[in-house]
Amino acid sequence: MSAQFIEETLKTPVGYECDVLVAGGGTAGIVAALAAARNGAKTILIDRYGFLGGSLLNGAGPLHSFFNVYKAFPGVKKVQVVRGIPQEIIDRLVAAGGSPGHLEQDKGGSYDSVITLIDWEIFKGVIFDMMEEAGVRILLHVMAVETVREGNTVKGVIIEGKSGREAILAHTIIDTTGDGDVAAKAGAKFIKQHATTKVGMPFGMTNVDMPRLVKFLEEKDMVNQIIHADKGSKIDDIIRLGFELRKIPLFQEYMDKTGIWGPLGASLHENNYNYINGTSIPNVDATDTETLSKAEITLRKQVMTLAKMLKEHIPGFENAYISWTPACVGIRYTRVIECGHDMSLDEIVNCQRFDDEVMLYGFHDCAPRIMIKNGGYYGIPYRAFLPNGVENLLVAGRLITSVWEAHMSTRNTVSCMAQGQAVGTAAALAAKAGKTVRDLDVKQLQDVLRKQDVFLD
After folding, report:
1. 3-state secondary structure at position 242
2. Which of 53, 80, 197, 219 is the most exposed, having the fewest neighbouring CB atoms within 10 Å of its CB?
3. CA distance 403 to 340
4. Using an 8 Å Cβ cutoff, are 381 and 356 in contact?
């Protein structure tokens, strides 16, 4: 059948106006919205789901990492590199019984010295509370489908939701969609990098005999990460667990065929292995509707097969069952927006600092194969969030950093949270001053961030 097109002439009502519009309520977007509102901006946050948190709840599991990887380097000082609003979120979760706080690895500290686990359902309530307290207006179940532009200046975003098609006009727009949906529609230059990585789908299993499982794994020398901590059980204190299934030939054969790895997981409650990460498919363009749909179906089949194999062959899983799967496939890499600076691996591993840096970070997801030098940390400059050739727009999250080896640091959860505080604060200051974000005084931005407990020393 030949290509068909439908021509449309649309008259879209302006439903909302604000100082700062944050498109995407994921890991970077939630912090960006809080930062913007707390700095005096009338802020709207939109998201396609019925909850906030994105991949923070949909696939990330433990948060990596608020601290430097000091355990890999004897004598190196432990430093909390990410603070500010991200730390406040953890404090609120701890107070609500939704997190045990920051936990040091008993084994695997050269990968990540400290991890931070959260209860996803408690998080959903806590983050809504924080948004309401800050005065953020939240629109859920909506998609950003187009932009409103005058030349190369973005004036707003067209959304579609249950109310139909509406426009939101804003002084500054922040794209934290992950896929760079707004930036791409605004005409920003981008490349696609999905071919360099995989998509995956973690899952959870309940009624897992965690002590029995760990005993078996330790006897077989399969454990590569573990944390013991109090989780309110007299029999089960295993809160973090990673192990090498490849050491069992039956699993190695299946993993070689499918690309499954690990697994690496977490357990917040007694006999509940609530996060198991390992399923994966390479080279999926998650910006293509049909390709994404097929990946979703394939990964859900992988989850069912792997869970069945665990039940049948691994002691501790005999009576377990799948109790959780995410709302969608976990995506690491799609569009990368061309910005004023593109972080390189050399800058990351050698702890590069910048005059216009607005955050620091000290974790790499390929550790210990790729390590940040001497357990240090690096800066990300403000210009790394400014798309080239487009005005009134900031980007943050996994849509920056074009080289996979560098992206494996900047795209991690706590990095995205720190990015969110930087861009949200910048957007609010620009709106308050009547300036574009490109013309903002970065020294002023840095001063405000420091006053709000962002670590820049």
Report:
1. strand
2. 219
3. 15
4. yes
